[in-house]
Please model this.
Amino acid sequence: MAYQREEATSSEMRHDWLADRWVIMAPQRTQRPSDYVVGPPRELGNENCPFCEGREEHTPPAVASYSSPRAAISRTAKSCAAASGAVATAAWSVRVVPNKFPAVSAAVPSLAVSAGGGLALAVDSCQSFGLPQTSSADDSASAQSSIDLFRRRDLTGGHEVIVESPHHWHSISQLDHEATCLVFTAYRDRLQHWLDDLGLAYGVVFKNVGLDAGASLVHTHSQLIATDIMPPDIARAAERMELFARKESACLFCRMAEDELEQQVRVVEQTPAFVAFCPFASRLPSQITILPKRHQTRFQALGNAELEQLAWLTHRLVRRIEHCYPDAAYNFIIHTSPNRLASPDCFHWRIELFPRITKVAGFEWGSDCYINPVAPESAAAALRTAGV
Amino acid sequence: MAYQREEATSSEMRHDWLADRWVIMAPQRTQRPSDYVVGPPRELGNENCPFCEGREEHTPPAVASYSSPRAAISRTAKSCAAASGAVATAAWSVRVVPNKFPAVSAAVPSLAVSAGGGLALAVDSCQSFGLPQTSSADDSASAQSSIDLFRRRDLTGGHEVIVESPHHWHSISQLDHEATCLVFTAYRDRLQHWLDDLGLAYGVVFKNVGLDAGASLVHTHSQLIATDIMPPDIARAAERMELFARKESACLFCRMAEDELEQQVRVVEQTPAFVAFCPFASRLPSQITILPKRHQTRFQALGNAELEQLAWLTHRLVRRIEHCYPDAAYNFIIHTSPNRLASPDCFHWRIELFPRITKVAGFEWGSDCYINPVAPESAAAALRTAGV
Model:
């Protein structure tokens, strides 16, 4: 019988049979607070912002908090705040909390805070739905039964917020180096928690800054979503990396890093361990890819020295973007290896970073073919010369 | 040798090897005029708008113009204008012009205005590049040679603007029924020109209204882009329709129309020939699909009576959206059958129409998995009760 539902009150996934992809329905997210009203962003003062120091009771309890030296990152949050000119000394520098309005329902409420309780269920769900939905094999398997155009399922996973500063700042570019390193440490720890400890199929860290990038709150923060299924696009990308490795006996992104460093027309900046460039087939103006130069499958495998380099580089790239496009919204995405790949060694992790200065119009929605009005070579040249 | 280019001055396509899709680089489009500045839209007065009556010399010469009775559409543009309360009587009601800042370079400049000259080249290009780029067959064919990460090609095609009124109106909802029918007649004629007469691989009509939907000018208009390659997403959709037909001995969208009409929870409105509903797995809030109830592969095959019904229905749906979301940006896309499909009879044409009230954020960019905060059942209920 076809599925009917008047109104959903929690997250569920629905399958789009035509596109063969899942969509997350999260009606509860319409309840979340927003700094943005129609027109330009309105900034909430400290007294209303749920992420500011002293308002901790307005978020769920922290699952992780960073304020003291960790491994190679040896300076304290106290000194960070002082270096940034903040008057008050915060009890924490970075705070990770479960999202109060999650896009992903934690089927086991304890999952977000307790590894033990949630693990079994998360893994069970993965086994049922862990296969990529992109191939028609999925449909062939059920060849005897009629196709269901109203297929749905629950979604097990987690949705966390990484609050990047106790102060009401708006961009990661306002943090000093030590604070930025703590933010990247939090990314690493939380991806480890969801992907390596709990074993979920997929986990992504992303950052929305500004209304046009999908942010609802101004206070600088990132998010992590972990799910028990692998999105089709991610499965497809992993398959392409595997295909490249099979045909070329080399890693796609190792090759790309080499080529970009050799050509030097799209490179924006590099460190000993990383290269940042505007990709040849950028869909969006001034899109930047950051790659580790040596082959590395998981962001979580970063050592502290590399992590410090990456934090430094990302901070500079955001400042370059902000110099080229003042007040531009931007996004930032960490693509680390999902779990349960057929050839896990072929995956090369990367970061995508891009300002949101164009809009996705009807042609792009209709064809998934993007029109980019800024050549990546021009974008890279402008970003290189931007003052940082 | 890897391709290097300092700065592009006309359109070219670049292949994203990872995603296996083409991106259109169109740097010349940064030159185009815009009504939109940072902040809320600024409306150009008649004296500056290139689409207003009396400013025809600011666009290339029209390739089609509609002002007199055509077939079943029996009233004149003159009476349309009068019925709409316009003071002046326009010489035309709808005007189609080549886009002055095309996203698609017409490799043969005469292609946009002359069918004869451009035809041979367009067809040649189609034969070279007409295959979908989604399968790895494309890569297997060149299995002996090294993979080129910097693959590019020119793009033959056309990019036209359908100016929908001589008056400086902002939405199709401001047109009367006769004028709306002329707009839909222009859509049909121009798709016939590019797809049926010239035989290009792909053609799409789309409409961007408002800054957030990707519009650069306020004056009500639509666009048509025709290309000599089929975008991968379109090829994939056609393959899925074929798969459904093979497995179910039925058309995917005929079945979907029947199911929606039976369930009646997501239907917004219908006419004898069409049904409009919020699809079960909508990626965006209040997304509407319009389907012909009987199986029809090509929008261009619409008879005049059906075309009038469709114009009436679309106009009402836009008004419903504008009632639910005043001043919202919206997009509108006509998905008609591309050419050269393996099983052309399986394709069922459709229209997608949706307000742009949410932003595409980092998670969606990273995973291609959308989070929709409005259940389609709730959206349909709200749209049904909206005053029109």
Chain B has a mean pLDDT of 82. Chain B is about 30% helix and 20% strand. The longest helix of chain B spans residues 177-197. The two ends of chain B are 60 Å apart (CA to CA).
